[in-house]
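User: I'm putting together a teaching handout on how sequence relates to shape, and I'd like one worked example. Could you take RNA-binding protein from Sporobacter termitidis DSM 10068, show the sequence you're using, and then write out its predicted structure as C-alpha cells right after it?

Assistant: Happy to. First the sequence, then the C-alpha cells directly below it.
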Amino acid sequence: MLNSRQRAQLRAMANALDTILQIGKGGITENVVAQVSDALAARELIKGRVLESSMLSSQEAADELARLCRAESVQTIGSRFVLYKENHEIPKEKRIRLVK
C-alpha cells in the first residue's frame, strides 16, 4: 500500500512517461492483462489511457487492471491512469526507490 508521499513521487515520475496502453471498446481482455503485466515487470510504472469508445471509465479500468495484475493504481486524471508494481527481479540500480 502506497502512502501519500510515495503517490506524489510516482505521480511526478509519471509526468514524463508516454502512454503505452490503450483500452478501447474491447475492454480489458486477457491480452491486455498480459501486456500490462509484462510492461509492469519491465518498467514498474506505466501510463494508460481509456478511449472514448470504451464502456469503462478510466477509474474502473485502472482499478480492474490493478486488481488483476496485483499492482497499485497511483493516479487517474480524465481518460488517463497510472499503475505501479514493484519488481524485485530488476537490478537495484534500475528499480524505483520510493520515499519512506
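A couple of points you could highlight for students: The longest helix spans residues 30-43. The mean pLDDT is 91.
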